Amino acid sequence: MPSTEMILTILVTVIAVSGLFMLIVLFSMFLAMKKGIKVAGEYATDMQSQVVPVLENSAALIKSMRDLIVKLEPKMDSTATDLAKIAHIASAEAKKIQESADEITDRIRRQAERVDGLTTEALNTVEQVGQVVNQAVSMPLRKVAGVVAAAKAVIETLTKSSSRARPHN
Q1: In sequence order, what are the residues at sequence separation of 6 or more whose Cβ sits closer than 8 angstroms to the Cβ of residue 70?
Q2: How large is the angle between the packed helices 4-72 and 77-168, nearest 10 degrees?
Q3: Cα(103)–Cα(94) distance, rounded to whole angstroms?
Q4: What is the pTM of this model?
Q5: Residue range 1-12: average pLDDT?
Q6: What is the DSSP secondary-structure string of 71-118?
Q7: Distance in angstroms (rounded) separating the CA atoms of residues 153 and 141
Q8: What are residue 2's phi and psi, to 5 degrees?
Q9: pLDDT in tens, 56-99
Q10: Which of 102, 104, 101, 97 is nearest to 40 (CA)?
Q11: What is the secondary structure of 106-167 as a DSSP string?
């Protein structure tokens, strides 16, 4: 029959291994989250660096068109009509740019929700693994404690009955 020290050593080892396993899982989740946040940040920065110059160029183009209209309005009505068409096209392009920016924002939001869902699922899995490990360790420990208590009771009963039997002889 294994000694109490051996049983305790085995239990401490099992608990230490399960704790190490949970630490490794949590650390890997941390690294995955860190990488996901970094990628999302880089994606947002990249998109911003592409969208901002286009918007700035659009503003400069609109300003120059206004100046040109002021200069040419008294002289040429047909030119003013053509410039109005150009302004309409620029407005449509600005709307397209806005739609693109909205789509990019929506994609980033969906990715953030996806990362959140994955993180929640991983944490739930870690919690379930912890519960299973806890049950796997505590159930045998209770059984061993019960067996030890029963053996102790039997030994105490036998020693008490043999000590009572000796004085009567």
Answers
A1: none
A2: 170
A3: 14
A4: 0.33
A5: 87
A6: HHTTT-HHHHHHHHHHHHHHHHHHHHHHHHHHHHHHHHHHHHHHHHHH
A7: 18
A8: -70, 150
A9: 788 778 888 888 777 766 777 776 677 788 888 888 888 988 98
A10: 104
A11: HHHHHHHHHHHHHHHHHHHHHHHHHHHHHHHHHHHHHHHHHHHHHHHHHHHHHHHHHHHHHH
| Token code pair at residue 29 | 């989740």
In 3D space, the residue among 150, 47, 158, 148 whose CA is nearest the CA of residue 97 turns out to be: 47
Tokens 């009567």 found at? 168
Measured CA to CA, the distance from residue 96 to residue 81 in angstroms comes to 23
Tell me which residue of 144, 107, 5, 56 sits closest to 99, measured CA to CA: 107
The span from the CA of 82 to the CA of 89, in Å, is 11
Which pair of structure tokens corresponds to residue 32? 């995955």
pLDDT at residue 26, as a whole number: 95
